[in-house]
Amino acid sequence: MKKAIILSIIYFLSCNFSFGQDSTEVKFRITTTPIQLFFYDFPLNFEKSFKKYTVGVIASYRLSTRNSGRVSGGAGLLGGYRTQNFWNPLYNAFTIGLNSKYYFVKEKHDFIESILFYRYWWFNNKDCEYDNVEGYNFQGTRTERQDIFGLKLLYGHSFTIKIKSNVKPIIDLYVGLGLRYITYKFETVNGKVKDIYYDYKQDIGNSWAPTFHFGLKLGLGIFK
């Protein structure tokens, strides 16, 4: 009796909940990037599927979690202040973008994905301070703006979890490269740098930055 129950469970799982490759009939995909949720950023990617490609839109909103205080500094390659936005609890942000996947075969396994996006980071009149071993520091009432224009080119693989439903869980694994153009404007009022006080200071600039990407997306596929 026990053997029959165990065999029945194995048969049910193998038929109804297994990783599969056939996502041919998927019509729409809604996914998110889980790692960003840990940084209070809430992204969504909505895609319409065609025979061997998709066209989609990307949107996200990132919540600030503090109105003042000390921002932790970094070191080394990630020690620059403008490379630490996701770790900076003072920042709000929103992102909009477009993406498209091209699948090598109609079953939609392996793909190349291109992404164009714009992200805006900001906070207003927050009393804060920052210091790192690379030498950049500030203390005062701070207002910041950063505009980021980005391009990503990714290679990935799509999985579908087979269940008896027209809505199935899907997973995308990916790796790739990108390029970003960044403009920034930082204003500090009633500030100081290493005990040197000033009434007002403004930092303005721009830069290019290459990027490396890897990770996964989780979501749902709506099938025909």
Can you tell me about this structure?
The chain has helices at residues 2-16, 34-37; strands at 18-20, 26-32, 41-49, 53-62, 69-71, 92-103, 110-131, 137-162, 167-193, 196-223. With 224 residues, the chain is mainly beta. It is elongated.
Give a summary of the structure in a few sentences:
By secondary structure, this protein is mainly beta.
Q: Rough shape?
A: elongated
Main sheet? 8 strands, antiparallel, barrel
**Fraction of helical residues:** under 10%
Subunit arrangement of the protein: single chain
Secondary-structure-based class equals: mainly beta
Q: Output the number of helix runs.
A: 2
| Distance between the first and last residues' Cα | 39 Å
Q: Using the CA coordinates, give the radius of gyration.
A: 23 Å
> In what order do the strands lie side by side in the largest sheet?
2-3-4-6-7-8-9-10
Strand content: over 45%
Write the layout of secondary structure elements.
Elements lengths: L1 H15 L1 E3 L5 E7 L1 H4 L3 E9 L3 E10 L6 E3 L20 E12 L6 E22 L5 E26 L4 E27 L2 E28 L1
Parallel strand pairs: 5-7
Antiparallel strand pairs: 1-8, 2-3, 2-10, 3-4, 4-6, 6-7, 7-8, 8-9, 9-10
